[in-house]
Every structure is written in structure tokens, then in C-alpha cells.
Design brief:
Layout lengths: L2 H12 L2 H12 L14 H19 L16 H6 L27 H6 L13 H6 L2 H18 L26 H10 L14 H12 L12 H14 L4 H14 L3 E4 L7 E6 L25 E6 L11 E4 L1 H12 L13 H4 L2 H4 L5 H10 L1 H10 L6 H4 L5 E6 L2 H8 L3 H5 L18 H24 L31 E5 L4 E5 L8 E5 L1 H11 L9 H23 L7 H8 L5 H8 L18 H12 L17 H11 L4 H4 L4 E8 L2 E10 L21 E6 L8 E6 L3 H9 L4 H11 E2 L6 H15 L16
Parallel strand pairs: 1-4, 5-8, 9-12
Antiparallel strand pairs: 2-3, 5-6, 6-7, 9-10, 10-11, 12-13
Helix pairs in contact: 1-7, 2-8, 3-9, 7-9, 15-18, 16-21, 20-22, 21-22, 26-28
GO molecular function: isomerase activity
Keywords: Isomerase, Signal
Protein name: Fatty acid cis/trans isomerase
């Protein structure tokens, strides 16, 4: 169908909006859930799997993929498409009561069940004829509205602009969402002619629109993924047999593994990359999985026996939720060495009561703490990524507790063993309790005092224990920091483990965790021990409920303050004794009254001076340099500017950008992805803005803590950040001018003019081809770790 013919047809069909709304049932019959699944061997299945779903991924899933998808519309799988949309908001920082969860595959198992929960269809659920399949489909009407608006602009002589879209477009994350069912769509289209899909992005091409029109008019037939290979099925059987042995020891270990990996995408590294989720089932291996759906992974399963099963991941892989975790013979050997070889007994299984299950130091007390620490350390990036990519998916309240750029190190197993000695953790388990014990409807007022007192008791006991250990000739030096030495005898990496150092970038209400010490020396750093690592996971991953009330969310945020500060104190103890407080005061300029009182009530540093021999007066910078040497064997170079084939002049120009501070950086968005074209070669960089703060203790008034004069910019080779703010493109020959103009940038007007020459704005006709290039490059650069980038944070500047 040509665009001009389409315009006429669309106008004719939508011209009598009121009549259409009033007569949907008469024209096309009453709504009834349809069966759209076809056999994988049919031509319809091939069209869906090979053409339709890939196109939906490239143009729709980039906004409609997670909890934060507009209208909860997830187009990542047939089940998500069939479920449709909801007017209910998941992300809310003000609700007084928790809301029922609406997790795809878990909280309803049929399309009809989703209708009963208030979700409305985006596909036609009336008479299955071509006209109804289009005109009674919200998905088609949304796409067609965009095509109509684009054609209307062209017919009126208005050229498609690559500049800023008008204010009628609202791109704020908390914007009011219409979420119109089909009976409301005509009114929506009249009131919001700019509201077609993809929203605020270029329309689909004629070929793309024709493909989806053809699919929708034919009844939107969909197919499940092709059957798993015999090799994959054999691996699944092998792992499920190990995870479901009948001994109490095995059941407790499997529970521990599940509660840490329930968000991960498991894959068999010897086979092609097919992902699985570890789930709790009422049924044993060999039978169909019957999901145990609970708010948290440790909630009462209400069944006599829990089975841990590998369920195939059916959704499109998104960068913002992707936590890959390899399973292979080496991993199995590692698990056996960690959990089976140590001598310990499990006499009974722990309770699922919230006060017990929310506290891993009670629940898993029987498993040696060293085993638990080894398990979490071996894939520390995955562990930390859980709170970045986990149930939060979007949430300033979860990440405004961390700085914009900092490095993370870990305490060695030997040092941790000393801290764990004499039943120390068992004695302290009551002081290590977590806010999730109050479940999803928690109070707000009393939390700071209660948990601050418990944390104070724990830190005082920990300080006594550490001072005791240091009095026994232990050294306070780099031997306390894990250098990546292999954690088990089964490791196959002679260089060591590259999880030993991590870099975290915060991008306002999202964040990224990467391996290595990436970027310039940061203001702060963390040194994490086992109790910290475990509490971070049970606070922000296993124990966090995105559907919880304001009390639950605030309690979580307040408690994370303690964990951040404890990790910072650990790191500061490596500095000379006389400058620790000075450095800490710099990190916490203008802290609030509650925090000031908390910090002043007790000394948070150990009594022993550092045994590191410092030769300069810039102790922190020198310490970072020593740590780089300490970790040299395992620091990856994936994000280094000097990659093979990158011209030295280009590296030097990127380093110029890395030196920028203040005004030029102020104008930049959180993350910008730069494509440099050099003949037939393309190189991609990430420009990550590091927003400076006087301190990270402000709960509701973060803006008062901003220090724009101290903002910095990190530039890396490759892609960092799951939510690009803007795309940039430049020819290699123009790069010096690109850099010079950015370095001279002072105002928003300067930034806008710079984007005119180098930006690929969301309104740019080149946007989708450019998007496809970046998504493809990302997949090539990191085949396992990559997923679709998300466009819900694209700016309109």
C-alpha cells in the first residue's frame, strides 16, 4: 500500500470517530481472547520469528521491554504482546500500600487471567477479519497514527526536522500515560495527533509498516521459540539433577544458589547462547514446570518440597536486565568444591518466616561463610549488577545513594576468614537484619534510628574484632585486597579472576557496572567484605519489591546509606591514619544533621595505622596507583581508549575530553554514544558524564548537593550505559573540530548548535539506521554481555 493511498484510507476510517467508538461491538463483535499460536513449522511461524519479532525488537522493544515500559506493555514475546497494556503505574514513590505484582509468566498464566487483572488488548480480540484486525487493534492504530501524522506533515509542506521536537511531546519518565484501550483510542488520536508509535521517534519505513500491517491483518499469528536441541536438554537435565538432590545439605545449598541467581540469564558456555532462568517449581525435573510465584525469592513457597528448575528465557534480551552467568563443567566443579567438600552438617531446613528468610546470616548459617563469600566473589560483577539491573529496573531511589563514578575492591578470603572466626557473624546476625523483614508494607518514621543503632552495634563489634586481628601481627596493607587470585582449585584461568576490581557509573536513575578500573581516578572507592556483599544483595535484589509501598522503598534507600559508608570506611582504612578523617570530610561536605550525628557518635576507623609506605602527599591517588599494580594481572582492557587499530591522534583527542571539568561537561547528558567513521571502519565510544556531589546523604533534595564546577567526563572505547541519552556521529577527519567545540562549550545554546552538526537526535530521519548500526556494533563488541539498548531516556534537546 503506498503512503498516499494509506493516508486517504486512514482518514476515511477514522473520520467518524464517535460512531466507531459507539459501534465496535456491532461492527466487529464483542471482545474475546483469541488463540494466535501456530505450529513452529508453518510459514506464519517463520514470518513471526524471522521477520516480525526482530522488527518489533528494533523499533518497539527498545521502549517496551521492562517494568518501566510505558503502560506495562512488553513486546518482548508473544505472551507480552498478548497480555497488552495497563493503566496501573508500577513505579511510584508515594503509594501507601503495596500493589499486586504483575510479572509476566508469574502472576498470571493466561491472557484471560491478565484481562481479569485489568490489562487490555493491543491486538484485535473481536471478529477475526482483516478490517477488524487492523481497525480494532491498538497496536496497528498506534503505528498508523504515526504514519498519518508524518504524511500529514509532508502533504502540508512541512519537512521532517532533525531538530528539537515541540513541547507537545512529553518524554519525562513520570509523565501521565494514556494507555488507551481500543474503545478509547479514537479520542486519544483526536487529542494527540503526535502520539503515534514509535512515540517521539521517526515513523517506520514503508517496508516495515507494510510488514507489520500484513502480519496484523492476518490475525497476528505467533509461534513459540524453536525446540531446544538434544544437547541443551541434556545439560538442563544434568544441572537440575544436581540442584535437586534430596539431602538437607543439598536443598539448603540449592536454595542459596537460587536466591542469588534468580535474576541471572544462565547459559551453557559450550553450546550456542540460549538463556535460561533458575526458578522455583512445585514439580520435579522431568515434569512441566509449575512456577512458585512469590514477591521475593525467599517468600514462603507453601509447598512441601521446592524444586529448582531451568526454564528457558522466552523474552528478548535487554541490556538493562541482562545478567549473563555461564554454566559449564568448571562451574559445576567449583560449586562442588565450594559447597560439598567443606565439612558441615545441615540438621534442618530454615524457616521462610520474613524475620528469618530476609536475613541470610540466619537462613544460611549452616553453610560456611567462606563458601558463601567464594560463591559471590567468583562472579562479583554479576552480584553487584543485581542491584543495578534487578527488580528496580528504574529508580532514582535505589541509585541516588551512590556516587556517579567509583571503584570497587574486595577483601581477600584470608582476611575474611579472620573476621569470620570465633562465630563472629553468628553472634552479629541480629545486628545484620535488613528492612525487608518488614515486607512490602512498611512504616517510614522509625527506620533510621532502629537500623542506625543496629549498624552502630555491628560496626563497633567489627572494629573490636579487626583491631584484635591487627594486634596479632596482621598488616593493614594491600594484602587485605583481593588481587584476583583464583578462588578454587578448579579455576581454568591462569591469569586469575577479572571480577576483582569493578567500576560503577551512575546515570541519575540508572547505573552500569563494568569490570576493571575504568576512567580517571574517582573521588570515592569501596572495599567490600562478605557481610557487606551479602547485605547489598538481600537489600536491593532479593529483598526489594518494586511493587512495595513508600515505606519499603524509603527503608531500603536509608539502609543503603549505611552499607555505602561502611564500604567507604573499609577503603579509607588503607590510607594513613592521620588523613582518613580529612578525606572522609571531603567526601561528605555539608552532610545533613542525622548523618552528621551518626558519624560523630563513634569512630568508624580502625586503630592501626596503614602499613602501606606512601611516598607522596596525594595519598589517595598514590593508593589507586598501587592498587592498579596489585591487580595488574586481571585488569581487563575492553574499555581502554588505545585499542588495536585506533590511531594515536584519536586516542589523544579522547584524552583531551577526559580532562574536561565543569561547564563543558555540565551541558552534556548522562550518556552519549559517539560513532567515529574512518573510511569503511567504524569505532564507537561512550561519553559518560560524572555529576559531582558534595555528599550522597540527601534523600529527597539531591539537587542541593550538586557541584557542577566539579563535573567530569569519562570517555571509553565501546558502549557503557544501557540507556543512551543521545547519539553522536562524526567523521574521523572532523574529530579535532568536534573535540574543540565540546571543550569550548559554555551554554545550552552551544550544546544545541553542536548537536546540529554532530547529533543524531530522536527526530532525525537517520535515527533508525543509526540505531541499527549501534545495536549491531554493541552485539559484536560484547556477544554475551550485550542486549538491546533502551530509548526511554533519549533526550529532546
Amino acid at each position: 500500500m503506498s503512503r498516499s493511498v494509506f493516508v486517504v484510507l486512514f482518514v476515511l476510517l477514522s473520520g467518524c470517530a464517535a460512531a466507531v467508538v459507539a459501534n465496535y461491538d456491532v461492527m466487529y463483535g464483542t471482545e474475546e481472547v483469541q488463540e494466535r499460536t501456530v505450529s513452529p513449522k508453518t510459514p506464519q511461524a517463520a514470518t513471526y520469528l524471522n521477520e516480525v519479532q526482530p522488527l518489533l525488537n528494533q523499533r518497539c522493544v527498545v521502549c517496551h521491554g521492562c517494568y518501566d515500559a510505558p503502560c506495562q506493555l512488553k513486546l518482548t514475546s508473544p505472551e507480552g504482546i498478548e497480555r497488552g497494556l495497563s493503566k496501573s503505574l508500577i513505579h511510584s514513590g508515594s503509594r501507601l500500600l503495596a500493589i499486586p505484582p504483575t510479572r509476566l509468566y508469574e502472576d498470571a498464566t493466561s491472557t484471560q487471567a491478565w484481562r481479569e487483572q485489568g490489562f487490555s488488548a493491543v491486538l484485535n480480540e473481536r471478529k477475526q477479519v482483516e478490517e477488524a484486525n487492523l481497525m480494532a487493534s491498538v497496536l496497528y492504530r498506534s503505528l498508523a497514527l504515526k504514519q498519518h501524522d508524518t504524511s500529514r506533515n509532508e502533504l502540508s509542506g512541512e519537512s521532517v526536522s532533525a531538530k528539537v521536537l515541540p513541547e507537545s511531546y512529553d518524554f519525562s519518565l513520570n509523565r501521565e500515560q494514556q494507555c488507551s484501550a481500543i474503545g478509547e483510542f479514537d479520542d486519544y488520536a483526536l487529542q494527540h495527533p503526535e502520539g503515534g508509535m514509535p512515540y517521539g521517534l521517526p515513523a517506520l519505513s514503508n517496508r516495515e509498516f507494510k510488514l507489520l500491517t500484513s502480519w496484523l491483518s492476518g490475525g497476528a499469528k505467533m509461534a513459540p521459540l524453536p525446540a531446544l536441541s538434544a544437547e541443551h536438554l541434556a545439560k538442563v537435565t544434568h544441572w537440575e539433577q544436581w540442584l535437586n538432590k534430596s539431602t538437607l545439605k543439598s536443598q539448603l545449598v540449592s536454595r542459596y544458589i537460587y536466591e542469588h541467581l534468580f535474576l541471572s540469564h544462565l547459559y551453557f558456555s559450550e553450546l550456542d547462547t540460549t538463556y535460561f532462568k533458575l526458578v522455583r517449581s512445585k514439580t520435579p525435573p522431568g515434569m512441566p514446570i509449575e512456577i512458585i510465584a512469590t514477591r521475593r525469592p525467599y517468600d514462603d513457597p507453601k509447598t512441601a518440597r521446592v524444586y529448582y528448575r531451568l526454564q528457558r528465557e522466552r523474552e528478548t534480551i535487554l541490556a538493562k536486565t541482562h545478567l549473563p552467568y555461564a554454566l559449564n563443567p568448571a562451574r559445576m566443579a567449583t560449586f562442588k568444591e565450594i559447597f560439598e567438600q567443606p565439612q558441615y552438617e545441615v540438621d534442618s531446613l530454615p524457616s521462610y518466616k520474613p524475620q528469618v528468610a530476609s536475613n541470610p546470616f540466619i537462613t544460611f548459617e549452616a553453610i560456611p561463610a567462606q563458601s558463601r563469600y567464594q560463591f559471590m566473589l567468583q562472579e562479583a560483577q554479576n552480584t553487584i549488577m543485581g542491584f543495578i539491573k534487578g527488580p528496580v529496573c528504574r529508580g532514582q531511589i535505589a541509585v541516588n545513594v551512590i556516587d556517579d563514578h567509583f571503584w570497587v575492591f574486595f577483601v581477600t578470603r584470608k582476611a575474611q576468614a579472620g573476621l569470620n572466626s570465633d562465630n563472629f557473624l553468628s553472634e552479629q546476625k541480629a545486628h545484620l537484619r535488613l528492612p525487608a523483614e518488614s515486607e512490602s508494607n512498611a512504616g517510614v518514621v522509625v527506620t533510621w534510628y532502629q537500623y542506625s543503632q543496629a549498624q552502630k552495634e555491628y560496626l563497633q563489634a567489627k572494629k573490636r574484632k579487626v583491631n584484635q586481628l591487627f594486634n596479632q601481627e596482621s598488616l593493614l596493607d594491600l594484602h587485605l585486597v583481593w588481587n584476583g587470585d583464583n578462588l578454587t582449585s578448579t579455576s581454568q584461568n591462569p591469569q586469575g579472576n577479572d571480577n576483582a576490581a569493578l567500576t560503577i557509573f551512575r546515570h541519575f536513575d540508572s547505573a552500569t557496572v563494568v569490570k576493571g578500573l575504568v576512567g580517571q581516578a574517582p573521588k570515592t572507592a569501596w572495599l567490600i567484605d562478605y557481610p557487606l556483599l551479602e547485605r547489598i544483595h538481600y537489600l536491593l535484589v532479593a529483598g526489594f519489591d518494586v511493587y512495595g509501598n513508600v515505606g519499603h522503598q524509603l527503608n531500603t534507600r536509608l539502609y543503603m546509606d549505611f552499607l555505602r559508608m561502611e564500604a567507604e570506611f573499609n577503603f579509607l582504612n588503607l590510607l594513613p591514619k592521620e588523613i582518613r578523617q580529612q578525606e572522609h570530610d571531603y567526601w561528605y561536605r555539608d552532610e545533613g544533621i542525622n548523618l552528621k550525628q551518626y558519624l560523630e557518635e563513634s569512630d568508624h576507623f580502625v586503630g592501626k595505622d596503614s602499613n602501606i609506605y606512601y611516598q607522596t602527599q596525594d595519598h589517595k591517588l598514590e593508593l589507586f596507583g598501587l592498587l592498579k599494580q596489585h591487580l595488574a594481572k586481571v585488569l581487563p582492557t575492553q574499555y581502554a581508549l588505545a585499542q588495536e587499530g585506533t590511531p594515536a591522534k584519536e586516542v589523544a583527542l579522547m584524552q583531551v575530553l577526559m580532562a574536561l571539568v565543569g561547564k563543558p561537561v555540565n551541558q552534556l547528558p548522562e550518556t552519549a554514544i559517539l560513532l567515529v567513521s574512518d573510511g569503511d571502519k567504524k569505532r564507537v565510544y561512550s561519553l559518560v558524564k560524572n555529576v559531582a556531589h558534595s555528599n550522597m546523604s540527601s534523600l529527597l533534595d539531591e539537587e542541593s548537593n550538586l557541584l557542577p564546577a566539579e563535573d567530569t567526563l569519562t570517555v571509553v572505547s565501546g558502549i557503557i550505559g544501557d540507556y543512551p541519552s543521545v547519539y553522536l556521529t562524526v567523521d574521523a577527519a572532523q574529530l579535532p573540530t568536534f573535540v574543540a567545540r565540546l571543550a569550548a562549550m559554555q551554554t545550552a545554546t552551544d550544546y544545541s548548535a553542536w548537536l546540529d552538526d554532530y547529533g543524531v537526535r530522536r527526530s532525525d530521519p537517520r535515527f533508525w539506521p543509526h540505531s541499527d548500526t549501534i545495536q549491531t556494533l554493541n552485539q559484536q563488541l560484547q556477544p554475551i554481555n550485550a542486549g538491546l539498548l533502551d530509548y526511554n531516556r533519549l533526550q529532546n534537546r
